[in-house]
Amino acid sequence: MTGNGVPPALVRSPEDLDEFYLEDASPATERSLNPMSTSERFIHQALLKRFPSVKSVVHSHSRAVIPFGIGAVPFQPTNHLAGGFIAQKQKGEEAPVFEIADYYSTNDTQNLLVNKPRFGQALANTFLTPAHNTTTATANDVPATPDCNLVLQRGQGFTTTTATSIPQAVYRAVYTSWNAEVQASAITINDAKGAAPNRGVRYIAQRELADTAALDDVATGEIGCSGPRRRLNHLSPRPLGLHEQSDAPLVLREEQIVSQQQFDSIVYI
User: Fold this and answer.
1) Which of 40, 94, 181, 255 is catalytic?
2) What is the Cα gyration radius of the chain?
3) Which of 28, 227, 235, 257 is 20 to 30 Å from 90 at the Cα level?
């Protein structure tokens, strides 16, 4: 399901939505035929079909991330909020990059869009390590979950998946862009100091990758603090976001004002 040329915030009725079959991404209704608004539906269809455990897919054209898909510097986790999902789960390496040019045929329109089933299938394969890729393994060896949660796309941006929820997928998309900004800044500062490329930039270590993964898990992640421990929850900012998107003024009633002790026990990011 996707918006029929309508931005998500403006969706008001079923007529604003397009529906597609999971099997081949073909339109389920006559109104689901807008080729421009749904051209890259094969990204979502291929990943949801290939990995039954995946609940949500986010595709982004983040300009902060694009340089890492076209340059020689690998995209690596830089901070505690992104370390748990950027690296491959099986290998602990940098995020892989999908090269669509490897799958073009002579008659294809080569505009970098994942707008055909075979492009979507090829992108889905990039979420697997070579040992699990169907080109080198039998179907029985392919896991129900991806080997990595994030794949960069050259000249396009990135795609991220999750086996948990839509909020977690959005969380990963937001912090992917944030990580790109942090890594680019660190490299710039490092270069200004005259250090060799990537020397002096300390990325998240292997043990830290494993331990920060809990922060990416809405069910079990916790953030330590000087007072009581506070649970990670991707939904926490949502009420304020809803107020910001509405015309209603944000007015707190007296009974909504909480003490510092109550605040320390609130579920939040």
Assistant:
1) 40
2) 21
3) 235
